Amino acid sequence: MSTDNELTWSNTDIGTHITTLRKAKGWSSYKLALNSGVSNSVLTRIEKGEREPKINTLLRIIEGLELNPAAFFSRFT
After folding, report:
1. Which CATH number fits domain 11-76: 3.30.420.40, 1.20.1050.10, 1.10.260.40, 2.40.30.170?
2. Please, are residues 29 and 44 in contact by the beta-carbon 8 Å criterion?
């Protein structure tokens, strides 16, 4: 079933967005890993689009970026 409201974000889209937001803050991936409580290796794989983040991991990264989910996902609307 297809609707206009389907999510069409790829792992690469999410990873690129995280990387862009992180770099805009002038942060290393290590700093974001510390802020979010996500291991640097997992964060790196997510940023590269090699790993699909679980929802709880993505929410921790968003919080680590000092954003709320609405602000993070506004780029995808």
Report:
1. 1.10.260.40
2. yes
